[in-house]
Amino acid sequence: MTGDCRFPRSLLLVKTSSLGDVIHNLPVVSDVLAQNPHVQIDWVVEEGFADIPRLHPGVHRIIPVAIRRWRRKLWSPATWREIGAARKALAETVYDVVLDTQGLLKSALVARQAQGLHLGHNRDSAREPGAARFYDQAFFVPKTLHAVERNRRLAGAALGYTPGPELDYGIAPARTEQGGGSAVLLTATSRDDKLWPEAHWVNLGRALASRGLTPLLPGGSAKERERARRLAAQIPGAQAVPPMGIKDLAAMLQHARLVVGVDTGLSHLAVAMNTPTVALYTATDPGLTGVLGQSWHRNLGGEGQVPSVQDVLTQLAPLLPSRS
């Protein structure tokens, strides 16, 4: 379909949050550009996640919004000035297609602020069925598919192509075969029921350190940083990583030898960076939202299941340095 004059010349993607959801949308950019490399692709995203689409060289323009922050200060004049500026930015370009892959009322309302043919999920497919009322055309994509595939299938149905078998996040440079000497341990997530026991992290970290790897433990909030410091103090050679932005986190993940993480957006980012990753699930179904990529990765556990340290080490065995 490359060069087909019927294919959109300009596309606005609407996927505002959260971190994992935004990462899951990156392959849409690669898929569209595989059909026609000349399409201008812009993206509406929450300000805190804007560095994710920036990692893909195929994204032309990023339009940040701050819905989460605006909700907390809805009656502030500054909030309404920012909303007005965002609406103006959305209206500046007339797009051939405005595609909302999020399927929420908030994302559908954001999409309607832009000029173009508005496309999205139908009532049986959208996460919030009412969102379908705001699209000019709506499409069905089974909810039983993985989130990445749902995004890809929706874009394909909306734009008239079939996504290929290759999954390309579009952001990962070539890696050396062995990667670096660090093991990034992603211990923090948005819900307590998604956490892995601290004793498990300590035992895993010690096992990795005994194989010559340096465990790195990042943390965002004060609570997460305190957990990282507490765990690092019990693991020889481990480092609690100071707060850093998404670009620096991406670089750290990309240069690591391996990553082990709970159900968090950064685990998805690690796989998008082609870093070998084991993702740990204790409260959710990895079949729908587990890490997914072309490189080596494993999803362990599930709803009501807690993977053991030995489960993780068994999966990691082929990746670990030989004992000295």
Structure explained in plain terms:
By secondary structure, the chain is an alpha/beta fold. It folds into 2 domains: 10-159, Glycogen Phosphorylase B (Rossmann fold, 3-Layer(aba) Sandwich); 182-319, Rossmann fold. It contains 12 helices and 12 strands. A 6-stranded parallel β-sheet has the order 3-2-1-4-5-6. Residues 1-5 have low confidence and may be disordered.
Summarize this structure as a short list of keywords or feature phrases:
single chain, 324 residues, alpha/beta, Rossmann fold, 2 domains, six-stranded parallel beta sheet, 12 helices, 12 strands, globular, disordered N terminus
Helix content: 25-40%
**Beta-strand residue fraction:** 15-25%
Tally of separate domains:
2
Shape: globular
What is the count of β-strands? 12
Going by helix content, strand content and strand pairing, the class is alpha/beta
Give me the Rg, rounded.
21 Å
SSE topology string:
EHEHEHHEHEEHEHEHEHEHEHEH
Terminal residue distance: 54 Å
Determine the mean pLDDT.
94
So, the CATH homologous superfamily of the largest domain? Glycogen Phosphorylase B
Put simply, the count of helices is 12
Uncertain spans, ≥5 residues at pLDDT below 50? 1-5
Q: What top-tier CATH class of the largest domain fits best? A: Alpha Beta
